[in-house]
């Protein structure tokens, strides 16, 4: 493996010199744009310590070397440059990166998830993370990738839901499926009708986008026992599916309604349409 080089540190040194030479030339906002352009240009500048440009240094590496280098940067506390990350992204989720998704180092795991992105090659590992990880931030990042590729993740999500494994996460993933599937629709509708988290399950139906759910949503929103937060989410779901709910409702005694009105310093109105 090649030696680790702190390209970001080298760039910061050049940037500090440039900023001294151009003091007062740019506003703070303009500096943000200038720095971004300078960093991009730095990727194509020959660096003696590397014997190459930052981009070229990583482009010469094999997939295995790139992943080993990424791990070494984290383990040795050397900043991971954007040039290394971009080169890994261009490789289309190499197998070595997928293997890293089964590791225990949370910093490396987060990097690997961000670099693998929505590539279906990583999905089996993503589901393993959802089932075993205790880090909610990592699980959220993984869930976002699975939702982005929900059609590829669908079968596994249905299977795990049936086994009672992380059912809410599986429903969240399934709500993003775009290819119509009666199994998905029935699962989302069943949970809405029988589950306790009305706002969440209504939002899943809204995301899925099947307007056959409108009668069920309209039936529930018309109940007198729903609170203001539930009402708002139900109304949003109905409207997102192309429906409409117009019956006036009185939430003046609802604790959630009063809290929201007090926080927004708005006068309490007796009706909500």
Describe the protein in words.
The protein is mostly helical. The chain is built from 16 helices and no strands. The protein has helices spanning 7-21, 28-42, 54-59, 63-76, 82-90, 95-100, 106-116, 123-132, 136-148, 150-162, 167-174, 182-194, 198-208, 214-221, 228-240, 255-263. Helix 9 packs parallel to helix 11. The chain is extended and about 75 Å long. It starts with 6 loop residues before the first helix and ends in a 10-residue tail after the last helix. The model has no long low-confidence stretch (mean pLDDT 94).
Percent in strands:
under 5%
Content-based structural category: mainly alpha
**Helix-residue proportion:** 55-70%
| N-to-C order of helices and strands | HHHHHHHHHHHHHHHH
Biggest β-sheet, characterized? Answer: none
What's the helix count?
16
Parts with pLDDT < 50 across at least 5 consecutive residues: none
* Topology, number of strands: 0
Radius of gyration computed on alpha carbons: 25 Å
Could you give the distance between the termini? Answer: 65 Å
Overall morphology: extended
Mean pLDDT: 94
């Amino acid at each position: 493996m090649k030696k680790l080089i702190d390209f970001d540190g080298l760039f910061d040194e050049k940037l500090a010199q440039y900023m001294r030479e151009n003091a007062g030339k740019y506003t703070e906002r303009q500096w943000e744009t200038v720095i971004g352009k300078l960093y991009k240009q730095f990727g194509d500048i020959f660096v003696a310590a590397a014997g190459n440009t930052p981009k070229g240094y990583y482009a010469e590496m094999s997939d295995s070397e790139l992943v080993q280098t990424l791990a070494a940067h984290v383990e040795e506390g050397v900043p991971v440059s954007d040039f290394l990350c971009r080169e890994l992204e261009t490789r289309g989720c190499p197998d070595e990166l997928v293997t890293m998704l089964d590791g225990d180092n949370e910093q490396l795991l987060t990097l690997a998830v961000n670099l693998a992105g929505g590539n279906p090659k990583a999905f089996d590992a993503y589901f393993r993370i959802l089932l075993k990880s205790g880090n909610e931030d990592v699980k959220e990042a993984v869930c976002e990738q699975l939702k982005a590729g929900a059609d590829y993740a669908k079968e596994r999500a249905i299977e795990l839901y049936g086994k009672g494994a992380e059912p809410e996460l599986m429903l969240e993933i399934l709500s993003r499926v775009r290819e119509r599937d009666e199994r998905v629709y029935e699962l989302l509708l069943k949970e809405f009708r029988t589950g306790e988290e009305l706002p969440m399950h209504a939002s899943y139906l809204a995301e899925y986008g099947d307007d056959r759910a409108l009668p069920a949503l309209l039936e529930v929103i018309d109940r007198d026992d729903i609170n203001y937060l539930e009402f708002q989410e139900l109304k949003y779901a109905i409207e997102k599916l192309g429906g409409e709910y117009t019956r006036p409702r009185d939430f003046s005694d609802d604790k959630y309604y009063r809290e929201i009105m007090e926080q927004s310093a708005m006068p309490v109105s007796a009706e909500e349409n």
